[in-house]
Specification:
Blueprint lengths: L1 H23 L4 E3 L5 E3 H4 L2 H19 L25 H10 L3 H9 L2 H6 L5 H6 L5 H4 L2 H7 L5 H14 L6 H25 L9 H26 L9 H14 L1
Antiparallel strand pairs: 1-2
């Protein structure tokens, strides 16, 4: 009996010591943000609740987005800036289809690249002599060349017409304006190659240096033009090193006018 009373006394002393320890450790009542008082130990569980609630909200947002990406996929992006990865591809395919222009603007934009192709034919003398199997490529820009070079001043007239009626026209799609300006910039690069070839000294003109330079310049121009036409027909913006940067600058200046 004495042992039982002693045991109960030790248990009561232990509970009192535990309460004192909790009070000293800061487990007393503390004011909360809502004006009520509660235990700090209880409020420490609030971050866990917030994590659960944020997770549920994120899952709800992802579900409402059609199973696609997160908030970064919700903004408008150009066709070549398509973000890879993410969940379902249905939303990305739909967004890409909406960003692409219709087939009319694609064809008109692709036809603009015939301008540098026609000017690149002056560099194709040695190329078609060695690669006669590719001679049908010489006939592709022949029909547009009849209209483009109908008079000696026609190329200059076409240049000012396209710059005034297409590039500076804000009512036309940006896709058409971009590719028109890029085709004209590419034509300027091709003409620089032609002027460089014509300015070579007489002891270099007709030599192997002239042959290599002409074939290299024409091959680069031909591959660039064909690739630009192909990607433009698919509805994409074509990025060319240094040329596209100048195109963006010119379009921004034209928009400010």
């Amino acid at each position: 009996m004495r042992r039982t009373v002693a045991g109960k006394g030790r248990l009561a002393l232990g509970r009192l010591a535990l309460r004192t320890t909790r009070r000293d450790a800061g487990w007393r009542s503390a004011p909360r943000s809502d004006g009520h008082r509660g235990e700090v130990g209880v409020t420490a569980a609030e971050p866990a609740r917030r994590k659960v609630s944020c997770r549920s909200e994120g899952e709800g947002a992802a579900g409402s987005g059609g199973g696609g990406g997160g908030a970064e996929d919700a903004g408008f992006s150009l066709p070549w800036q398509k973000k890879k990865g993410g969940g379902g591809g249905g939303g990305e395919d739909t967004e890409e289809a909406l960003n692409k222009p219709n087939i009319l603007w694609r064809v008109v934009s692709a036809c603009m690249y015939f301008i540098p192709w026609m000017d690149a034919q002056q560099l194709s003398n040695y190329f078609y002599d060695q690669w006669s199997v590719l001679l049908p490529l010489y006939m592709v820009p022949a029909w547009p060349a009849r209209l483009y070079c109908i008079t000696p001043m026609a190329p200059l007239i076409w240049f000012f017409m396209l710059f005034s009626l297409v590039i500076r026209n804000k009512r036309l799609p940006h896709f058409l304006r971009f590719h028109t300006m890029q085709a004209m910039m590419t034509d300027i690069v091709v003409m620089l190659f032609g002027l460089t070839r014509q300015s070579l000294p007489y002891y270099i003109a007709g030599s192997w240096v002239d042959t290599v330079l002409s074939q290299y310049a024409f091959l680069c121009a031909l591959l660039t033009v064909i690739w630009c036409i192909w990607k433009t027909l698919e509805g994409y913006y074509v990025e060319l090193p240094f040329v596209s940067e100048a195109v963006y600058i010119q379009l921004s200046i034209a928009d400010m006018m």
